[in-house]
Write a structure and sequence with these properties.
By secondary structure, this protein is of the alpha/beta class. It folds into 2 domains: 157 residues, NAD(P)-binding Rossmann-like Domain (Rossmann fold); 120 residues, N-(1-d-carboxylethyl)-l-norvaline Dehydrogenase, domain 2 (Orthogonal Bundle). Helix content is 53%, strand content 13%. Strands 1, 2, 3, 4, 5, 6, 7, 8 and 9 form a 9-stranded mixed beta sheet that branches.
């Protein structure tokens, strides 16, 4: 049975680690915040003293971290201890250029590399129903597939190293733009005197219907802004997408505009809120607050 190490136990990584334990995989953890280890250690996960020590005892190391700089720093520590023939599976949302640099460093150490970012949120992570977008060699994917199957219901091989991260950024462009668009639509309607709840009911059966509308609209009306996915991370993901666009000479006008909406939230001290709170700056400019009207 493959011995698994995992680094990054936040909103996504924590429930993913729980799924690995549910699958009966031997699991070792390392985290910068020791408090995040306690519940998983109580369930039987081992705890390593360092990323290098974790890698030395693992056949497959998973990383799920916030930002590209975090990924490169942790990967360097992991590869310092990783055994040739082991695998590094990078599951964060980062830019393809960073991913390919980590892949090259892994190859130099004789370590297989997969980029395997996920979509599905904390709920999907807890249920093991994530969509996983994989870049890297098919041989390495087949070797690590039993680990990934504990986490995701759909595993898609997208191409060579960096392809998984690029696919995830395409998803984040759609999501980031869509949340900002929903915010503008509901604020426009409310400013013009429409009942926001009635408007959402109409839009949900019209051509503007989308999964994002069905998630973001009710959250905006209910002011349910406890973070499932923060505006700070939405801004970071769009920054990664814009970097990829520059590298590929691909125009990303809508992504750039949406990025500014989340940067605006940061400037207002709202970056810790869920990305559905992107409605708040639009509300302030319009001088209204969207909310379901009492019946």
């Amino acid at each position: 049975m493959m011995r698994v190490g995992m680094i990054g136990l936040g909103r996504m990584g924590g429930p993913m680690a729980g799924r690995l334990l549910d699958a009966g995989l031997p699991l070792t953890l390392w985290a910068r915040r020791p408090a995040s280890l306690a519940a998983l250690a109580a369930r039987g996960a081992a705890v390593a003293d360092s990323p290098a020590a974790l890698a030395a005892g693992s056949d497959c190391v998973l990383t799920c971290l916030p930002r590209p700089a975090d990924v490169e720093a942790v990967a360097a520590d992991v590869l310092a201890g990783a055994r040739p023939g082991s695998a590094l599976v990078e599951m964060s949302t980062i830019d393809p250029e960073t991913s390919r640099r980590v892949a090259a460093a892994a190859r130099a150490r004789g370590v297989d590399y997969l980029d395997a970012p996920v979509s599905g949120g904390p709920e999907g992570a807890a249920r093991g129903t994530l969509t996983i977008m994989v870049g890297g060699e098919a041989r390495a994917l087949e070797r690590c597939r039993p680990v990934l199957q504990a986490l995701g219901a759909r595993i898609h091989h997208m191409g060579p190293a960096g392809s998984g991260h690029l696919a995830k950024l395409c998803n984040q462009v759609l999501t980031g733009v869509a949340y900002a668009a929903v915010a503008e639509a509901v604020v426009l309607g409310a400013k013009g005197g429409l009942d926001p709840a009635r408007l959402l009911e109409v839009l949900s059966t019209s051509s503007g219907r989308s999964r994002t509308l069905e998630q973001a609209g009710p959250a905006m009306l209910a002011r349910a802004f406890d973070a499932s996915f923060t505006a700070d991370l939405a801004a970071k993901d769009l920054e990664c997408a814009l970097a990829a666009g520059r590298a590929l000479t691909a125009r990303l006008l809508l992504a750039s505009t949406a990025h500014q909406c989340y940067v605006e939230m940061r400037g207002l001290g709202l970056g810790h809120l869920d990305q559905a709170a992107v409605v708040i700056p639009a509300e302030r400019i319009a001088g209204i607050t969207v909310g379901a009207r009492p019946t």
